[in-house]
Design brief:
Strand order of the largest sheet: 3-4-5-8-9-10-11
Structural class: alpha/beta
Radius of gyration: 18 Å
Shape: globular
Number of helices: 10
Number of strands: 11
CATH architecture: Alpha-Beta Barrel
Oligomer: single chain
Largest sheet: 7 strands, parallel
CATH topology: TIM Barrel
Distance between the termini: 35 Å
């Protein structure tokens, strides 16, 4: 597996593994299957694993820590804070607002260290920008954790270019995690340019469009009980029909190249800069292995341009999120 750098301090596999779906949002699965997938990922060279306190909530961190304990020295574990969490509720219903107060940052870090079973968090992200707390205060508290040896590197998620610069002035930011894929192009322009300028790694979550770009989702009937995607605008019937026509074009181009649609979509993300490390989610070993193999797929400039145009933003039907969701970015 090729490697890439996130900021100055972290070297990771060119493709990581988003662990959320094993416990949260997409229906989850049994622990034993998830552990096998996580450990197989390490065996094939994946070294970057992403979780968060809110996934479950809490249980995804415990799962990741348990599975990766035998490989601790080989892997980089990222986790995130920033939501108010109602412990009496599960999954996305547990999010009841934002909280990036300095005292909460420390509380979450201590709890995440215990759930992960580690001495240090490799990459600690603010999950969403909290408009009620100056970013300088939040990052200051995060920086204190670095000084104390409890965190190695700092990250932000879904932050604007202005917020990134203000945060980076307080303490170096190693990574920005935001949604980015063939059908979500919001970071292009100021955000990617800012990361490139400041030497900040960019970590696209949902680089396969929440699985849609794989071509395996044809209707909401393909979702299990409690799957978040059934509530997202892009997966409403009319929008899905329009978007499926675009995915069909991706599948056709992938077939011509001798790769899967998922691999083509990930190769496109990787082509956008050597500071970019996507973290596709995968619950099953075959899907995870297929995604990891995308690191070896090379696209020509002409192929990248064709994909740019094939799924240009104005062609995508539906918004990313519905109005008012707790996880909607507040920049």
């Amino acid at each position: 597996m090729q490697t890439r750098r996130l900021g100055k301090d972290l070297t990771v596999s060119a493709i990581g593994l988003g662990c959320m779906g094993m416990s949260h949002a997409y229906g989850g699965q049994d622990e034993a299957t998830s552990i096998r997938t996580l450990q197989r990922a390490v065996e094939i060279g994946v070294t970057f694993f992403d979780t968060a306190e809110v996934y479950g909530p809490f249980v995804n961190e415990e799962l990741v820590g348990k599975a990766l304990k035998p490989y601790r020295d080989q892997v980089v574990i990222a986790t995130k804070f920033g939501f108010k969490i109602d412990p009496t509720k599960s999954d996305s219903a547990a999010m009841s607002g934002l909280d990036s107060r300095p005292e909460h940052v420390r509380e979450v870090a201590e709890a995440s260290l215990k759930r992960l079973g580690v001495d240090v968090i490799d990459l600690f992200y603010q999950h969403r920008v909290d408009p009620d707390v100056p970013i300088e205060d939040t990052v200051g508290a995060m920086a204190d954790l670095v000084k104390e040896g409890k965190v190695k590197a700092l990250g932000l998620s879904e932050a604007s270019a202005e917020i990134i610069r203000r945060a980076h002035a307080v303490h170096p930011i190693s990574a920005l995690q935001s949604e980015y894929s063939l059908w979500t192009r919001d970071p292009e322009g100021d955000i990617l340019d800012t990361c490139r300028e400041l030497g900040i790694g960019f970590v696209p979550f949902s680089p396969l469009g929440r699985g849609f770009l794989t071509g395996k989702i044809q209707s909401t009937a393909d979702f299990g009980e409690g799957d978040l995607r059934a509530k997202l605008p892009r997966f409403e019937a009319d929008n899905m029909a329009a978007n499926l026509a675009l995915v069909k074009l991706v599948e056709e181009m992938a077939a011509q190249k001798g790769v899967t649609a998922a691999q083509l979509a990930l190769a496109w993300v990787l082509s956008k800069g050597d500071f970019i490390v996507p973290i596709p989610g995968a619950r099953k070993i075959p899907n995870m292995e297929q995604n990891a193999a995308a690191a070896d797929v090379t696209l020509s400039a002409e192929e990248v341009t064709k994909l740019d145009e094939m799924l240009s933003p104005e062609k995508i039907a539906g918004a990313r999120y519905g109005a008012g969701a707790a996880w909607t970015p507040k920049r």
